[in-house]
Amino acid sequence: MKKRSLKSQMSLTIALVVFITVGLxxxxxxxxxxxxxxxxxxxxxxxxxxxxxxxxxxxxxxDSRIWNLPLIKSIGMYALxxxxxxxxxxxxxxxxxxxxxxxxxxxxxxxxxxxxxMQRNYPGMEGQxxxxxxxxxxxxxxxxxxxxxxxxxxxxxxxxxxFLKSLNIVLLxxxxxxxxxxxxxxxxxxxxxxxxxxxxxxxxxxIAAGNYGITLAKTTKTKELNELVDAVNHLTCFLKKQEELxxxxxxxxxxxxxxxxxxxxxxxxxxxxxxxxxxKERIQSCHEEINRITKLVKELEELAKVExxxxxxxxxxxxxxxxxxxxxxxxxxxxxxxxxxxQIHGSTPKVLADRDKITQxxxxxxxxxxxxxxxxxxxxxxxxxxxxFSILKIRDNGVGISSEDLPFIFERFYRVDKxxxxxxxxxxxxxxxxxxxxxxxxxxxxxxxxxxxxxCFTVYLPKxxx
Length: 466
Ligand code: ADP
What we know:
With 466 residues, this protein is of the alpha+beta class.
């Protein structure tokens, strides 16, 4: 099927709608005007005949019993040009003045002209010349009779036809002008609507080709089009971020794997070539590096799982106190060994959460707290409540994080002190997982820290709505 552009489709539709509307208005205006005009003409003719009869009646002088013949003649001739053929007679039937007798050829000419014109313009009307007699009276006395011969039931003279013709021309002219204006404006309107869409299509193609640097400008005042522009810009931004993330992820993973793999490779090479004795310590060191790689891969798997499952959270009302207690129990031995004082304060209403995922959040935060707090330190867990959120705070008085590092700790593979972390074994993924999970719950996580004094992580989770 042939595809038409939005602009031509809109212009055509608008033109068609206007054409039909103007057509309908013109037809109904025409019908209405014709009907009104017809009734006006009938009334007008009635009035004309009445005036004619009254005028003729006045031409008789009762005292001298004489008709004013010259005036009757001029009234008759005037009436003839208006389409009335008159014959004035005495009450006894004797003719005073007869238009046909006066000028037969003119009368025939007038009759023929009117008949032709009426039949041409009103072909459905079965009209013909008919004559009617009216009494000419003065006071109570009948002074004569006039026979009026005219085209009935009504007729239009030249002036009337001229008037109708002008009216039709005005109507037609207005219609054509309105149509032209509508087509022009429709075309302009269609152009205004279609231009940003065409532009958006072009830019979307660019984006699809991987060019994420472009942003669409809002050039229209149309709300929906501006929303479309916003949506496309938002999409571009999102795709750009995803692309950057993907590239960084590859680079980060490669970087993280390179060091332990390098160590294992050089150690094994030296041992196989006989440069190094395969001592227990050396084999153990290789084993540690392989463990590190395994741990990294496991954490990556976990992160991938969290990001994949973001859309499928198994949400249910969860009591945070209970969950906390279970997680703390897991760390009992290590807490005892490090002689850390751990306390839980406060309580909070149930949150709407995925139990397993939130357990993971507490586990990661608490394990960090324990990991980065020296022996005999303190960890406080506080439960608080806000309007829509339940708050979980995990506060330690451990090593703390510098203000330069603090903004980046939730980023993937970000570790504050690489050497320290090689010892503690973290790959910088734990907090990324925490943030992913909390964000998926429509919550947020914040960190406040001071180097050497301790760190406090605050997690906001939406409360169960009553
Ligand atoms: P890791 O597995 O290395 O601990 P995380 O993503 O959990 O990775 O943490 C990122 C970095 O943030 C860590 O390397 C650590 O330096 C810092 N960090 C996290 N929690 C704490 C804490 N409670 N005290 C001090 N530093 C912390």
